[in-house]
UniProtKB/TrEMBL annotation:
Residue span(s) of domain Arginyl tRNA synthetase N-terminal: 1-83
UniProt-recorded name of the protein: Arginine--tRNA ligase
EC number: 6.1.1.19
HAMAP family, sorted: Arg_tRNA_synth
Cellular component per GO, a single term: cytoplasm
Pfam families linked to this entry: Arg_tRNA_synt_N, DALR_1, tRNA-synt_1d
Subcellular locations according to the entry: Cytoplasm
Motif range ('HIGH' region): 119-129
Residues in DALR anticodon binding domain copies: 458-572
Domain of life: Bacteria
Source species: Micromonospora jinlongensis
Amino acid sequence: MDLEKLLSDRLAPAFAAVAGGPVDPLVRRSPHADFQSDAPLALARRLGRPPRDVAVAVLEHAVLDDVCASAEVSGPGFLNLTIADRTLADLVAGLAGDARLGVPPAAAPQTVVVDYSAPNVAKEMHVGHLRSTVIGDAAVRLLDWLGHRVVRVNHLGDWGTPFGMLIAHLADLGGAEAAHELSMGDLDDFYRAARVKFDADEAFRERSRLRVVALQGGDERTLRLWRLLVEQSERYFLTVYDLLDVTLSEDDFRGESAYNDLLPGIVDDLDRLGLLVCSDGADCVFPPGFTGRDGEALPLIVRKSDGGYGYPATDLAALRQRTGELGATRLLYVVGLPQRQHFAMVFAVAQAAGWLCPPVRAEHLGFGSILGADGRMLRSRSGESVKLAGLLEEAVARATELARSRNPELDAEAAAEIGRAVGIGAVKYADLSTDRRKDYVLDWERMLSLDGNTAPYLQYAYARIRAVFRRAGTEARRDAPIVLAQPAERALTVELLGFGAVVTEVERSLDFHHLAGYLHRLATAFNAFYERCPVLRAPDELRESRLLLAELTARTLRQGLHLLGIRTLERM
Ligand code: ARG
């Protein structure tokens, strides 16, 4: 049982008695006590009574004696609540025997489709795909751990008119042979060369146009070339996923082309439902509430005037399949914020068509950009967009170098292992520790620093605890009685008891910076504890208690980092 919930459960009946109806006690951590409740303020306004009087009345009704050491009214009418040490010790003892660290599995498991990563065939993954991959994978890990049925969907951009040009270029180069030479990391060069030819050469443009027609018409030779491009790209993306240590596999690719056969049905059904409007030769839906700059209604174009279907139609078909065939009750789309309107319109049309009905929910988990040190969109020195693989290799190289310089005795293998866990961890953590809606600056020094809200700081705290156990020569006794002698061990205990609440909140919000912030507070509380409370040199009873607190901290850090997709190391 987490502390917020414990206090809420105790306060709720008292608030109800004072208010004459249910009131959320709004219990949260406080800098002045362990927890505070702000709810008397709003309630006082509603009742037209002085806030402090309301707060006093709530306290009179609340049964808190057995769990709180003190409960007082403070300031304009907050409740300050300090938990009794006995309660803390009992609850943390309960955690020790709980493999799930106080995080119960979901009471009502859902089928959740997570649409993430989704790079485009024959193009490099860029940093936007990095964010999608990292955030989406954290969502997958967390929801899976909570017992939901999670379906990963890698909505690869593998269809559309650019493929005419790409296939024509591949054919010019000699087809299959050239595809095999199209080695890893040359994707952008390939794309650019095709583009240059397309812009310069009328005959090539014509060949490209014919290839689009052939591709859509199912011409076997053209499809074979298309498949080569897709396979080659997928193979490349898998090497990036491997380097990035994410759970996406080849089974999760479900590109845009997978929905081709469903597209005519989407148009027919929208038409039958009376939602389709022909506008400038294109089949459109005008969902209510979407207007352009001049106030004119905005269309979602389902079929273009040339008869082709585009990105929106594909997303409608995908959504319908997810809520229908896959039986999903929660749909997540981890895609950059520039596509916010696209998703809002797709969801609105799907609702109008009855393909997305409560309790099923679709959420666009939008995110901002990664910026360079100059505060502008991250670019390579030559001004192109940064290749993700190169960025990850740089992270690992820098972290390996730092590990070596900190500890010159490390052998090459150990340094490489640390470099990989820390480098990749730092990249992921930099992403997950900021509010995803915001842009953030890629700053190697800060990300790789052992101080501050960084992956290395957390990984180091974990490794430090493991070192204590190596020196102790034993693991903690899970049934050791907890003694809270010092303020620092009390503070650590309060943090340990907060894991459940934060995971439950992130399950709903998917705001991973809250989990990151929690882990950072936990590691900081541990470091303060470790500075002030001797562990191995303490008298027996204290030593056992402190070893158990240390072990719980390590397990919580490890599990929390694991949910973020970040590895822990036994030594650093
Ligand atoms: N391939 C797209 C891009 O790179 C992202 C696709 C996101 N998923 C979706 N269902 N539309 O921008």
